[in-house]
Amino acid sequence: MVDGAPYLMLGAQSGNSSDWPATLPQVWPAIEYLHANTLETPIYWEQFEPKPGQFDYSQVDLLLAQTRQRDVHLVLLWFGTWKNGSQHYMPEWMKLDPKRYFHVVNKEGEYVDSPSPLCTASLEKDKKAFTALMNHLKEVDPERTVLMVQVENETGTWGGTIRDYSPEASKLFNGPVPPEVLKAMDKKWARPGANWQAVFGPEAEVYFHAWAIAKYVGQVAAAGKAVYRLPMYVNAALHDPLTAEVPVTYESGGPTDNVIPIWKAEAPAIDIEAPDIYLPGTKQYLRTLEVYHRPDNPLFVPETMGSPLAARFFFSALGLQAIGYSPFGLDYRGLVPRYRARRIRRMRSLIQRHKTTA
After folding, report:
1. 279 found inside a domain
2. Is-contact 288 241, C-beta < 8 A?
3. Structural domain boundaries, residue 157
4. What confidence tens digit (pLDDT) does each residue in 267-303 have?
5. How far, in whole angstroms, is CA 186 from its chain's centroid?
6. What total number of domains does the chain contain?
């Protein structure tokens, strides 16, 4: 509900690097041409907190002003600790101190390009920065230009590392499964004190990593929501919902459909676990919509292929009461003109068709 009326997000997500003063002029013409009613666009932690404790609100304010001029709404994407499994949008002063803001360790004892969910130093900094963002929105956006906030971006770990294998993480993995996880995953039969491997078998490491990341992100979301209660969601880089995918080849630890209950238990401040759908097969795509459409989880597709390949699934999402649908990269930055025009025309036709039938 927006302004007292039902609101379907006919969205478009800008490119990852399109939210800058120099590139925003290449975003708005596409949004206007599409007749989209919602823009999803990032807020970069590295820009937002260039020095410890010094917050730069200029980009947020610019976005709000330009959005209001066009009578559309915003969904802000917090590129904080995680962005596609890495920490590349952390402030530079954190990247230059890897001992304090440490990464995941693989089985060989090497640090990999992914932040550790057990790093309390990173967690505390992220909580403070995200709280500053939400507090600023509360102060400057009483008209609710911003509808929702995405907390982090495609959390998890790539590169064949299923979980953090640091001594601290392994100690927790070999320790008892938290009772809320046993309840969420319907493992109440497990003997008291049973460890992750004993309870979950081949899926134990994936479930453990999901628990650790969900707990981290849940604390960030709760800190922000404590000052401003906007709806919040997390997005998932998916695994194939038609296969078990063991051994794991996808981004482990994020809110994939096999661990949604763990995320619900450990991150209650998150309102929606949402799929970023780039699976090309019809059966895969439709199954993904189905598994994220749950009684405790409204279906929201915040990111999908910005091409005719995905456009046809928009109506399938509506059939499952989706609250929004947002293809990725629908701006005029960096696209081949012929492909750009064809893609934009297809999505514009889709939105207009929905408005006519509605």
Report:
1. yes
2. yes
3. 9-357
4. 999 999 999 999 888 999 999 999 999 999 999 999 9
5. 26
6. 1
